[in-house]
Automatic annotation (TrEMBL):
The lineage of its organism: Bacteria, Bacillati, Bacillota, Bacilli, Lactobacillales. This is Superfamily II ATP-dependent DNA/RNA helicase. Residues 145-291 form the Helicase C-terminal domain. InterPro entries: Helicase_ATP-bd (IPR014001), Helicase_C-like (IPR001650), P-loop_NTPase (IPR027417). GO terms for biological process: DNA recombination; DNA replication initiation; double-strand break repair. The keyword Zinc does not apply. Pfam families: Helicase_C. Coiled coil: none annotated. Keywords: ATP-binding, DNA-binding, Helicase, Hydrolase, Nucleotide-binding. GO terms for molecular function: 3'-5' DNA helicase activity; ATP binding; DNA binding. Residues 1-129 form the Helicase ATP-binding domain. The keyword Amino-acid biosynthesis does not apply.
Length: 291
């Protein structure tokens, strides 16, 4: 979606910065861009590359503080994610990092109050893309009582498709992964959270289908693409799971043209407002997309 714009800026000798609040998003963007553009691209985050001059830079949002009037175009992916969301310091860094006549492009599937106010004031312009590139509708979440989890889990495993399971808290996720592995010893199961030291390795193993069931917190709710997966959300009524978080989690399914469908299952002990709002919003997006 952004390739043509990046290519246009680079072909005229300009510089492009692509930033995101989430490390996992930056890593995936760097892999894609490095594959498809000929220039060397630094990846800047706390464990990333040392900076070297390049017309195209990928970085976490805090790395913007290192730059002043450096970019003709700055693209912020997942602008509504923590810690960028409504963070005045990072918004200042963003403005400071672009050239005086440079342009900003915000990317998100779930906007913020701050951005919505700017749109109403005509300070920024909204471009709305209700359809995915493959032309299929978004997968609508289905709600199930939590007690049905193992039944639905066994049904899903018979399909052979990889399964991404979201949990609301790290401690619960660690215990849940251990218990699931004990119940299903033949399955290749892993857990990943912000505290996981081997996080990058585990995520890559899931992408390569060396791990077929990945249990994770909200760190993988957005900006990452896995082929042909299904998504389960455990305790989907948990207050940590906001409407935007649930929309993003559901959005991990159906991203691949090889399998533009899939399962999005919310397991709960009682529906939350956020769950209902997320489902309603996804249905609205599909209507706007002509489905």
């Amino acid at each position: 979606m952004i390739y043509q714009l990046i290519e246009q800026i680079l072909s005229h000798g300009g510089s492009v910065g692509l930033a995101s609040p989430r490390i996992d998003v930056c890593i995936e963007l760097h892999q894609r861009l490095s594959r498809d553009f000929t220039c060397q691209i630094p990846l800047l985050y706390h464990e990333g590359d040392s900076y070297f001059r390049s017309p195209l830079v990928v970085m976490t949002s805090h790395q913007l503080l290192r730059f002043k009037e450096a970019f003709d175009l700055l693209i912020i992916d997942e602008v509504d994610a923590f810690p960028f969301r409504d963070n005045d310091m990072l918004y200042f860094a963003l403005e400071n990092a672009k050239k005086i006549n440079g342009n900003l492009l915000y990317l998100t599937a779930t906007s913020t109050d701050k951005l919505d106010k700017q749109i109403k004031k005509h300070e920024i312009k909204r471009l709305f893309l209700p359809r995915r590139f493959h032309g299929h509708p978004l997968v609508i979440p289905k709600f199930f009582w939590k007690k049905t989890f193992y039944k639905k889990f066994i049904e899903q495993r018979k399909t052979g498709f990889p399964l991404l399971i979201f949990v609301a808290e790290i401690d619960f996720g660690q215990d849940f992964a251990k218990n699931l592995q004990e119940k299903f010893p033949k399955e290749r199961i892993a857990f990943v959270a912000s505290t996981t030291k081997s996080r990058k390795t585990i995520v890559e193993a899931f992408r390569k289908k060396q791990v077929l069931i990945l249990i994770t917190t909200s760190i993988l709710e957005r900006g990452v693409t896995f082929s042909s997966i299904d998504v389960f959300v455990i305790n989907s009524e948990h207050p940590n799971f906001t409407k935007s978080a649930l929309i993003q989690m559901a959005g991990r399914v159906g991203r691949d043209s090889k399998r533009p469908t899939g399962l999005v299952s919310f397991f709960h002990s009682g529906k939350s407002l956020a769950m209902c709002q997320a489902q309603k919003e996804i249905k609205k997006m599909n209507r706007l997309g002509g489905f």
